[in-house]
Amino acid sequence: MLYWLTGLSDGGDFFNLFRYITFRAGGAFMTALIFGFIFGKPLINVLRRKQGKGQPIRDDGPEGHFSKAGTPTMGGLLIVGALVTSTLVWARWDNPYVWMVLFVTLAYAAIGFADDYAKVSKQNTKGVSGKMRLGLGVIIAVLASIWATMHHPEALQNQLAVPVFKDTLLNLGIFYIPFAIVVIVGSANAVNLTDGLDGLAIMPAMIAASTLGIIAYAVGRVDFTEYLDVHYVPGTGEIFIFTSALFGAGLGFLWYNAPPAAVFMGDTGSLALGGALGAIAVATKHELVLAVVGGLFVVEALSVIIQVLYFKRTGRRVFLMAPIHHHYEKKGWAEPTIVIRFWIISLILAMIGLATLKVR
C-alpha cells in the first residue's frame, strides 16, 4: 500500500525510498515485529479465557508434555495477523505472486483454525478429519498452482528448474500442476508435523522463509539472474517483503512461544507457514531447493511415513515415537537441546540451499 507514496516523489526525496524492495522489506519486518509485541499478550489472555483447559495433550505423548496442560493454542493468529497486515501495508497490491502467497497462507490458516477449534471445544486431540483437511488443502493448492503458472513467463510454464545444473529445465507438461500441488500440500503438512515442541517449528520456518525470500529477490531481478545464471521470474522480488514480514511476525510470536511456551501456534500457524513456504517455492520455480532449505521438515514428515508403513508391515517401530523429535525426547534429550540442535540443522540446510544460487 505504501508503495503508492512514490507517486508523491520527484525522484530525490524521502518518498522515493518506497520504490525500493529492500526498504519496504525492512519496514515490513519492523511492522510485523511491533504488531506481535503489541497484540501478543492481549491475544494470549483472550485465548486463555476462551479456551479454558487449552490445547489437549496426547495421552501417549512424552511424559514431559503433561506439564504443558492448560497452555492455549491458536497462537498462529498472531503470526498470520502480523504477517498479513504488514504485507498489505508494505507490498505492491498489483503483484500477483504476493496475492497468491497471501491466499495460500490465509486459506491454510482457516483450515488450521477449524482444526484447533474442534480440538479445544471437544477437548480431544482429534480435530477436523484428516480426509477433510487434505481435501481442502489440495483444492487450495490447485488454485494456487494454476495461479502461479498463469503468471510465470511462457518459457518457464510447466517447467521444473533443476538446481546446480546450469540452464536445466525439465518440461513436466500436464504433470507440473500435480507436482506443484504436492509441494504446497506436502510443505504445509510437514511443518504441521514439526510443530511439537516449544519453538521447534517457528524458527526453522523463519529461516526457510528468509532463504526463499532472498532467492525470490534474486530471481526477480534480471541483473542478478544474469550474473547468477538462474532463471528470471519477473515480479517475484516482491515476495521478499512477505518473507521479511514473516520473519518479524515469527520473532514476535517466538517471544511468547519460547520455552516454557505461553501459547502454542497450533495448526492455525503451522499449516499457514508450511503452505506459504510451498507457495513461495512454486512462485519462484525453486521447488527442489525447498526440499533442501526445508530439509528438517522433510525429515520430520518422512519419520512419520516410515514409522506408519513399517509398523503396518511388521508390527514393530523404527523410532521410539514419531515424529522424530519425539524419538529424541524418549531417548532422554532435554526439550531445549532438541529445539536448538534442530535450529542449527535448519540453518546449515538453509546455507546449502542458498549456495545453489551460485553453484552451477
TrEMBL record:
<feature type="transmembrane region" description="Helical">
    <location>
        <begin position="288"/>
        <end position="311"/>
    </location>
</feature>
<comment type="similarity">
    <text>Belongs to the glycosyltransferase 4 family. MraY subfamily.</text>
</comment>
<dbReference type="GO" id="GO:0051992">
    <property type="term" value="F:UDP-N-acetylmuramoyl-L-alanyl-D-glutamyl-meso-2,6-diaminopimelyl-D-alanyl-D-alanine:undecaprenyl-phosphate transferase activity"/>
</dbReference>
<keyword id="KW-0460">Magnesium</keyword>
<comment type="function">
    <text>Catalyzes the initial step of the lipid cycle reactions in the biosynthesis of the cell wall peptidoglycan: transfers peptidoglycan precursor phospho-MurNAc-pentapeptide from UDP-MurNAc-pentapeptide onto the lipid carrier undecaprenyl phosphate, yielding undecaprenyl-pyrophosphoryl-MurNAc-pentapeptide, known as lipid I.</text>
</comment>
<dbReference type="Pfam" id="PF00953">
    <property type="entry name" value="Glycos_transf_4"/>
</dbReference>
<keyword id="KW-0133">Cell shape</keyword>
<keyword id="KW-1133">Transmembrane helix</keyword>
<feature type="transmembrane region" description="Helical">
    <location>
        <begin position="134"/>
        <end position="150"/>
    </location>
</feature>
<dbReference type="GO" id="GO:0009252">
    <property type="term" value="P:peptidoglycan biosynthetic process"/>
</dbReference>
<dbReference type="InterPro" id="IPR000715">
    <property type="entry name" value="Glycosyl_transferase_4"/>
</dbReference>
<keyword id="KW-0131">Cell cycle</keyword>
<feature type="binding site">
    <location>
        <position position="192"/>
    </location>
    <ligand>
        <name>Mg(2+)</name>
    </ligand>
</feature>
<keyword id="KW-0472">Membrane</keyword>
<dbReference type="Pfam" id="PF10555">
    <property type="entry name" value="MraY_sig1"/>
</dbReference>
<dbReference type="GO" id="GO:0071555">
    <property type="term" value="P:cell wall organization"/>
</dbReference>
<feature type="transmembrane region" description="Helical">
    <location>
        <begin position="338"/>
        <end position="357"/>
    </location>
</feature>
<protein>
    <recommendedName>
        <fullName>Phospho-N-acetylmuramoyl-pentapeptide-transferase</fullName>
        <ecNumber>2.7.8.13</ecNumber>
    </recommendedName>
</protein>
<comment type="pathway">
    <text>Cell wall biogenesis; peptidoglycan biosynthesis.</text>
</comment>
<dbReference type="GO" id="GO:0046872">
    <property type="term" value="F:metal ion binding"/>
</dbReference>
<feature type="binding site">
    <location>
        <position position="267"/>
    </location>
    <ligand>
        <name>Mg(2+)</name>
    </ligand>
</feature>
<keyword id="KW-0808">Transferase</keyword>
<feature type="transmembrane region" description="Helical">
    <location>
        <begin position="170"/>
        <end position="188"/>
    </location>
</feature>
<dbReference type="GO" id="GO:0008963">
    <property type="term" value="F:phospho-N-acetylmuramoyl-pentapeptide-transferase activity"/>
</dbReference>
<feature type="transmembrane region" description="Helical">
    <location>
        <begin position="200"/>
        <end position="219"/>
    </location>
</feature>
<feature type="transmembrane region" description="Helical">
    <location>
        <begin position="239"/>
        <end position="256"/>
    </location>
</feature>
<dbReference type="GO" id="GO:0005886">
    <property type="term" value="C:plasma membrane"/>
</dbReference>
<dbReference type="GO" id="GO:0008360">
    <property type="term" value="P:regulation of cell shape"/>
</dbReference>
<feature type="transmembrane region" description="Helical">
    <location>
        <begin position="74"/>
        <end position="91"/>
    </location>
</feature>
<dbReference type="InterPro" id="IPR018480">
    <property type="entry name" value="PNAcMuramoyl-5peptid_Trfase_CS"/>
</dbReference>
<feature type="transmembrane region" description="Helical">
    <location>
        <begin position="97"/>
        <end position="114"/>
    </location>
</feature>
<keyword id="KW-0812">Transmembrane</keyword>
<dbReference type="GO" id="GO:0051301">
    <property type="term" value="P:cell division"/>
</dbReference>
<keyword id="KW-0961">Cell wall biogenesis/degradation</keyword>
<keyword id="KW-0573">Peptidoglycan synthesis</keyword>
<dbReference type="InterPro" id="IPR003524">
    <property type="entry name" value="PNAcMuramoyl-5peptid_Trfase"/>
</dbReference>
<feature type="transmembrane region" description="Helical">
    <location>
        <begin position="263"/>
        <end position="282"/>
    </location>
</feature>
<keyword id="KW-1003">Cell membrane</keyword>
<keyword id="KW-0479">Metal-binding</keyword>
<keyword id="KW-0132">Cell division</keyword>
<feature type="transmembrane region" description="Helical">
    <location>
        <begin position="20"/>
        <end position="40"/>
    </location>
</feature>
